[in-house]
Amino acid sequence: MSRGHNRLTPVALAVACAALLLPLTPAFAAPGGARPAGPASLQTAYATVFTKGEGGYHTFRVPAVVQAPDGSLLAFAEGRVNGPGDDGDIDLVMKRSRDGGRTWGPLTVVLDDGPNKVGNPVPVVDRTTGRLLLNTTHTSGDVTTEDVRCGYADETQTRRSFILHSDDSGATWSAPREITAQVKPGNWRHFVGGPGHAIQLTQGELAGRIVIPGNHSIAPPEGSGIDCLDNSLFGAHALYSDDGGQTWHLGGVDTPLTGFINPNESQAAELADGTVYFNARDQHGVSPGTRAATTSPDGGETFDHPYQEVTGLTAPVVQGSVVALPEEVDPRRPLVFSAPGSATSRTDMTLSVSTDDGATWTTGPVVHQGPAGYSDLVALDEGPGSGTVGVLYENGSDDEPYHQRITFARVPAQLLGGA
Q: Using the 8-state DSSP alphabet, how is residue 21 labeled?
């Protein structure tokens, strides 16, 4: 199916490098429902990145953002061809900003596997080598998520994990390299990274390790009588690499099977002492809240404890993002969390802040009023004295769906608050 743009493979993507040099299209106006916060001299700035129908795609979903080694920002998303649903023909697409997210360049297709799905982009930069890594998940376009979870998809159709890399800040990409056999146990069915960014550790003996948070489901244990679509079969995990993404290992795994907390889409952040903090979506567990968290003392190899309910974070059942601000921005190294701020609906994209490593949370600014969904956070490195958090998030306005567009918001760190 033609979508009005070139369908580029990773090898052919080099031909498209020149497109990244085209003049950027300004997008200064706040999207519908966006709300500038603070005085005129200290406001959140907005730019629309992906818009429903652009480039022949029906919908863009599942955003991820990273600051590339050359300082530019790369925004990734799933380009869904035929509708907003999670299955079918889905490509991995990208846009670049060379001015801190104020304007964005043209749409680029990173991976297009014909009628199949390439999704869940999880980017991270290896600061040791300057290499940009991108984890993504491949699924056959002729199976559904339910087929995968119930074991009806064979080994070529089911969720498979791949790594791409770029040595030129995302201008060109390597061919995808499969890592499924290294990290996926035999009883896992659903299996994806993130969604959202991965991290590289900076503290102690494990500095340089790359950690990809993720989620999975397992086959019902023999004799359990659990239905293959029961949410209690969901779990969260971590993958890690100590050699710049060449080899990967399965780290901490939590699949509780209790139904109280069903950890699902997860994100990670490194605390000041090198502990890794994980925050996950609770997929309709009976726990009163919708968020769960755990920590890892050994760089993601193990979890300190099973995921536990997070109090003080209000969100519906949805993916959320977490990032630790660097010490030069705030000496407290606070955690920032993004998700819709309603307990019952995907609306009002809100930031929350923790200055005690996730023990307690303070509600911060509402970035967007109106329909809002998935998001990803990046702490922008813009030189000494800067302090800006970037939020790439799905949103709509009024009666539009929350996946009408994907917007990037520049939020001054001074607006975040926190005790």
A: G
pLDDT > 80? residue 227: yes
Residue with tokens 């429902």, as numbered in its chain:
33
Q: Can you read off the two tokens belonging to residue 3?
A: 């979508």
Distance CA 379, CA 199 (A): 12
> Which residues are bridge partners to 254 per DSSP?
236
Two tokens at 418?
Answer: 């926190």
CA angle 378, 382, 388 (to 5 degrees): 45
Residue 379 bridge partners (DSSP): 389
Instruction: Look at 232 and 14; give whichever has higher pLDDT.
Output: 232
Q: Are 106 and 98 in contact (CB under 8 A)?
A: no
Residue 31 and residue 25 in contact, taking contact as beta carbons nearer than 8 Å: no
Beta strand ranges found along 115-274 (DSSP E): 117-126, 131-139, 160-166, 177-178, 188-193, 199-200, 210-218, 234-241, 249-254, 263-270
Q: Which residues contact 399 (CB under 8 A, 6 or more apart)?
A: none
Picking from 102-111, 244-253, 392-401, which range would have the lowest pLDDT averaged per residue?
Answer: 392-401
Q: Is the pTM of this model over 0.85?
A: yes
Q: What is the pLDDT of residues 87-111, one digit of tens each?
A: 999 999 999 999 999 999 999 999 9
